UniProtKB/TrEMBL annotation:
GO terms for molecular function: DNA binding; DNA-binding transcription factor activity. It is found in: Nucleus. GO terms for cellular component: nucleus. Pfam families: Myb_DNA-binding. CDD domains: SANT (cd00167). Keywords: Developmental protein, DNA-binding, Nucleus, Repeat, Transcription, Transcription regulation. This is Myb transcription factor.
Length: 336
DNA sequence: AATATCCGCAACCGCTCCGAC
DNA sequence: CGTCGGAGCGGTTGCGGATAT
C-alpha cells in the first residue's frame, strides 16, 4: 500500500498551462511568496494539483530562469559534471544559474547524449565505446577465469581475481588510493543507500579528491564540497573542474599506457595549477594540447579555448587503435 | 498538399527525503 | 521512535511543432 495521492487526480486539470493559469500562479507568488504548494491551487483559484503548480513555477515561471539556448560553456560543464557525478540533475543545475534540473536533464537526453555517442564516447561512462566493449570483454574473460580458478583452486592468480565491479571501476579513479577511498565509502554507505541510485553510484563516484601522486594541483578540491556549495559558479570553479577532470583522465591514460612521459605531464599540471587567476582557459587548453602532442606526436593542437577538442582527439585515437587491434568488435552487435 | 516521422520540451509519475508532531 | 505530509528528485510520457517523404 503506497501513499495516498496528494489530490483528487480525477478532478484536477492536467496538461499544458494557459497564460491565465500562469498569471494566477505569478500573482499568488507575488503576494504570498513560495511555500505550502498544496494550498496554492485553492488560494490562487486554480483547478490544478499543488505539485503541478510547484513544477510549473519552478521549471518555467520563476523570474530568474533563462529561456535561451545553452551556451558551449554550459554544455561543457554539464558533460564534465555528468562524468563526475552522473545523472544528479539537480546538483548539476545548481551550478548553472538560471537553469533547472528539468532543463539540464532534457538537454542531456536530447542533445548531449547523442552528441557524445556520435563522437564515439559512451554517455554513461564517458569512455570511448571501444573501451566499454573492451571492459565487457574483460568482464566476460574475468568471469570465465574466475570460475575456472574456482574449479581448479589456483590461488596463484588471486591478485588477478579482484571483485568484478571493482575491476571495472578502477580505471575511473586517478590512483589506487582514491579508488580504495571510494570502495570504503561505498561499503560505509551500503546500509543506507537508496535502491534507486545504486547504478548511478557505481558508475559515478560521489566525491573524490584530486590529489594524485602524479600531480598535486587543486589538492583540496572535492566534488562533495563543491556540489554542496550553493554559491554561484564562477570561472575559477570551471577551471578547477576542468583541471581535475582532465587530470583524472590524463592519469588514467598514463596508467593505461597511452601517455609515456609521466613526469612531463606532471610538470605541465603543476605549472598550470599555480595559475588560478584570470578569466582564461589557457591552462586547460595548454595541458590538453601538451598531453595531446605527447600522445599524438605529429598532430597540431588547435581549437577554441574550452573546447578540449585535442583531448577528445586523443581519446578517439586510442579508440581507433583499439578498433584496429580488435577489428572483430566492429562487426559485433551489442546492447547495453 | 497531405501524411509520416522525428525531435524538443513541458508535464506527469512514483519514489525518497526530511522535518514537524 | 513512528507517522504524516510537504518538498524535491530522476525517469518517463505525450503533445505539438518541425522536417522529411
Amino acid at each position: 500500500m503506497g501513499r495516498p495521492p496528494c489530490c483528487d487526480k480525477t478532478n484536477v486539470k492536467r496538461g499544458l498551462w494557459t497564460p491565465e493559469e500562469d498569471a494566477k500562479i505569478l500573482a499568488y507568488v507575488a503576494n504570498h511568496g513560495i511555500g505550502n504548494w498544496t494550498a496554492v491551487p485553492k488560494k490562487a483559484g486554480l483547478n490544478r494539483c499543488g505539485k503541478s503548480c510547484r513544477l510549473r513555477y519552478t521549471n518555467y515561471l520563476r523570474p530568474d530562469l533563462k529561456h535561451d539556448s545553452f551556451t558551449p560553456e554550459e554544455e561543457e560543464l554539464i558533460i564534465t559534471l555528468h562524468g563526475a557525478i552522473g545523472s544528479r540533475w539537480s546538483c548539476i543545475a545548481k551550478r548553472l544559474p538560471g537553469r533547472t534540473d528539468n532543463d539540464v536533464k532534457n538537454y542531456w537526453n536530447t542533445k548531449l547524449r547523442k552528441k557524445l555517442m556520435k563522437m564515439g564516447i559512451d554517455p554513461v561512462t564517458h569512455k570511448p565505446v571501444s573501451q566499454v566493449i573492451s571492459d565487457l570483454g574483460n568482464i566476460s574473460s574475468l568471469t570465465n577465469t574466475n570460475s575456472q580458478n574456482n574449479l581448479i583452486l589456483d590461488h596463484t592468480k588471486d591478485e588477478q581475481v579482484q571483485p568484478l565491479q571493482h575491476q571495472v571501476q578502477y580505471h575511473q579513479f586517478t590512483n589506487q588510493e582514491n579508488f580504495q577511498q571510494h570502495v570504503l565509502s561505498e561499503v560505509a554507505s551500503s546500509s543506507s543507500s537508496s535502491s534507486s541510485s545504486n547504478l548511478t553510484r557505481l558508475n559515478s563516484p560521489i566525491s573524490y579528491s584530486c590529489n594524485t601522486s602524479q600531480a598535486q594541483i587543486n589538492s583540496n578540491f572535492d566534488w562533495s564540497d563543491f556540489l554542496h556549495n550553493d554559491e554561484p559558479l564562477v570561472w575559477t570553479d570551471i577551471q578547477q573542474i576542468q583541471q581535475c577532470d582532465i587530470q583524472r583522465v590524463m592519469s588514467s591514460l598514463t596508467l593505461s599506457g597511452i601517455m609515456q612521459n609521466e613526469g612531463e605531464i606532471s610538470n605541465n599540471f603543476n605549472s598550470n595549477g599555480d595559475d588560478k587567476q584570470g578569466g582564461s582557459s589557457e591552462g586547460f587548453e595548454d595541458v590538453a594540447c601538451d598531453a595531446s602532442k605527447e600522445y599524438q606526436g605529429h598532430k597540431k593542437c588547435e581549437g577554441n579555448s574550452f573546447s578540449g577538442n585535442s583531448f577528445v582527439d586523443g581519446i578517439l585515437d586510442k579508440d581507433s587503435e583499439i578498433r584496429a587491434t580488435f577489428p572483430e568488435i566492429l562487426d559485433a552487435s551489442f546492447d547495453y
